[in-house]
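[PROTEIN RECORD]
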Amino acid sequence: MNDTNKNLTMEIQSDVFEMLVKHLQNKTEVQNIDLMNLADFCRNCLSKWYVSAAKEKGIEISYDEARKIIYGMPYNDWKSMYQKEATKEQLEKFNSKENK
């Protein structure tokens, strides 16, 4: 792959990532535990991946800073406004996945 194609691919991937983040910011009814149960990742995972990718590029960013980018606001604000108590069924499903 030449540099032009590589750069274009990276730009497209960046755009897709931005769309995914914006989509998750707008879908506040989707709880992190639901994402974990269905897809084995959540907003917090994206935040951790963001920190890791930044570190690989020599950029130090805190987990809280990454969460603010992913959530679109400080995590504690998002949590108090949108996070619901996990149901028994959600927790059972989550815990059963951990043992696999």
Summary: The radius of gyration is 16 Å. Residues 94 and 100 are 11 Å apart (CA to CA).
